[in-house]
Amino acid sequence: MRVLGMMSGTSADGIDVALANISGAPPRLVAKLEGHYHAPFPKLVRAAVLRLANGAPTTTAEISQLNFLLGEEFARAAIAACAKWRLPLRKISLIGSHGQTIFHQGKPSKFLSNRRVGSTLQIGEPGIIAERTGITTIADFRPADMASGGHGAPLVPFVDYLLYRSAKIGRVALNIGGIANVTVIPAAARPRDVFAFDTGPGNMIIDAVVERITKGRQAYDQGARLASKGEVIHPLLEKMLREPYLHQRPPKTAGREQFGRAYVESLFDRARAHRTKPEDLVRTATIFTALSIVDAFRRFILPQTQAQELIVAGGGTKNPLIMAQLEAALPRMKIIESSRWGVATEAKEAFAFAILAYEAWHGRANNLPSATGAKHSAILGKLVHGRAR
Predict the structure, then answer these.
(1) Residue among 102, 104, 106, 124 at smallest CA distance from 17
(2) CATH placement of domain 158-341
(3) What is the mean pLDDT of residues 285-299?
(4) 268-278 pLDDT, tens digit each
(5) 291 phi/psi in degrees, rounded to 5
(6) Long-range contact list for 78-82, CB < 8 A, 24+ apart?
């Protein structure tokens, strides 16, 4: 089957579309990345997504409207990707769309007369995608895992295990997107031996700081140029490294609820007390991201398993300062970009949702309970049929 995987992450910079050619079934599933396409969000759309994801006051009408509007954006991205590849839509068997997360609370908390509820909401209406493309679409993957007692994330470890398991080599797959997450795959691992979790912020804090100090002219620190001009604010960094989330044991998930606008506002408030240059705050945020990942390795990974290889993906791999920190702090691990495995670093998560959709279509469980904390395996995703042909 040729399957399109689509993903918009916590950075909300746009939609990644991956074209996957998939055959077989686990443990002999074969998946090849045939193409990658990125469709940036229009500025007003991105601003609306970030405003909602950061917890700004809204209405049910706005959420409903944005859900349908994003459905149009996802459909447009799928159609544009196939046009770029000169691939007729009728040649695509299936679409797997993660959608855009605007709220995620994997751990239940008190709600309405002390009822304990966890919830998640990804928007980007799959009915629109299926109608505009004519292709059967599977979306909304997280709720079924949460209904099974899991955190609803991370979901990509299911695919990491299929791709990177080795009989002899222990591996860790690290994705540095808006949030950074790891999948730990010991040598000769069985599914229950794998564990995964969000380490904390990836590019999220850095991007927010850069966007604010440049008044929106830059959305991220390309090549760590701004960070390279600054110095670390050590008292602030030390306080950031005491963030309670970093000490919380896995399984755990993070998002804008922990490291979004409110966190960045408090960061600027604390930075003012040190009378620092804007570039100093960018560098401090960058080093914090790297050290929060390293901290996760030292607390939760290296004491439990021997890992010889670190496979990295996501936009954070383009930040030389982050990568240099990881290489210096994890000298015994060979760092390999996912592109060496035939999957471009920026396409990794979209590619994963193509595989998750493929497994759901075949009625096979596609979560990894050891990663999400679910009580049992489950088939994730809701199906909307494409137009009759």
Answers:
(1) 124
(2) 3.30.420.40
(3) 97
(4) 988 888 778 89
(5) -70, -30
(6) 78/4, 78/6, 78/17, 78/129, 78/132, 78/133, 78/135, 79/132, 79/133, 80/37, 80/39, 81/4, 81/17, 81/19, 81/35, 81/37, 81/39, 82/4
SS3 content of the chain, % helix, strand, coil (to 5): 45, 25, 35
Predicted TM-score (pTM) above 0.85: yes
Q: 49 near 66, Cβ under 8 Å? A: yes
Domains 2-152+347-384 and 158-341 share a fold: yes
pLDDT-derived band at 388 (thresholds 50, 70, 90) equals: low
Q: Where are the domains of the chain?
A: 2-152+347-384, 158-341
Contact 386, 136 (CB under 8 A): yes
**What would the mean pLDDT of 41-59 be, rounded to a whole number?**
93
For tokens 């579309």, name the residue: 17
Q: CATH homologous superfamily of domain 2-152+347-384?
A: ATPase, nucleotide binding domain (3.30.420.40)
Q: In which residue are the tokens 């080599």 written?
A: 169
